[in-house]
């Protein structure tokens, strides 16, 4: 499937052997390397491929955006209209949450419209009668929108996130606005654990995250982030390593 975000150089599908090979190139004895063992364990569980996201600090948000659209493109035709309608409703509520947090509507209008049109275009042809599955659209500013939504979720629910609002450098507590300005707003700033929780809550979605940390001796630890119904299938399984997120792909 072509990248629904319009970039041919990012989030392309690759076999896990690529990840394994990159690790092997940097170690002396593969049989003793815990990272290699963890990669092999993931393959044994059926995760035979991954989508590699560019390591520019925005990888988490871009991976979520990709998975958000890809899931729609893979949705059964009988459920597609209902699923698109639901996503558009969630997106509209997300925009209101951003505005309620103090942002001016004009600041998010363009990014919101691009995201909204991208979702609509899964089922509604554009002016040239093309749907998303048959074209590579202009790259939308979805990362900006998702960062603004994460900021809004934190600011509108300070009681829920206050214990996470710590300066990563000094360890001192920050107020919500200061934390957002330093760690959520800037492009290229890595998303921490709290941002994953906040975005899942704001978009009402579930995510699984596999930690490739080289520590565990019995496989890979998975974290389950639940912002949607417990019975709902996770949007994606992300692979987290050294402050970086890729998308794990399980064979069907």
Task: Output the helix-strand order.
Answer: EHHEHHHHHHHEEEE
Q: Give the CA-based shape.
A: globular
* Major sheet: arrangement of strands: 1-2-6-5-3-4
Query: What is the end-to-end distance?
Result: 15 Å
Question: What does this entry look like structurally?
Answer:
It contains nine helices and six strands. It starts with 11 loop residues before the first strand and ends with a strand. The protein is globular and about 55 Å long. The model is unreliable at 134-138 (pLDDT under 50). It has helices at 16-24, 34-44, 59-73, 77-100, 105-120, 142-156, 158-161, 176-184, 193-203, and strands at 12-15, 49-52, 206-211, 221-226, 236-241, 244-249. Helix content is 45%, strand content 13%. By secondary structure, the chain is of the alpha+beta class. Helix 4 (77-100) runs antiparallel to helix 5 (105-120), helix 4 crosses helix 6 (142-156) and helix 6 (142-156) crosses helix 9 (193-203). The protein has a six-stranded mixed sheet.
How is the topology of this model organized?
Elements: E1 12-15, H1 16-24, H2 34-44, E2 49-52, H3 59-73, H4 77-100, H5 105-120, H6 142-156, H7 158-161, H8 176-184, H9 193-203, E3 206-211, E4 221-226, E5 236-241, E6 244-249
Parallel strand pairs: 3-5
Antiparallel strand pairs: 1-2, 2-6, 3-4, 5-6
Helix pairs in contact: 1-2, 4-5, 4-6, 5-6, 6-8, 6-9
Q: How do you describe this structure in short?
A:
With 252 residues, the chain is of the alpha+beta class.
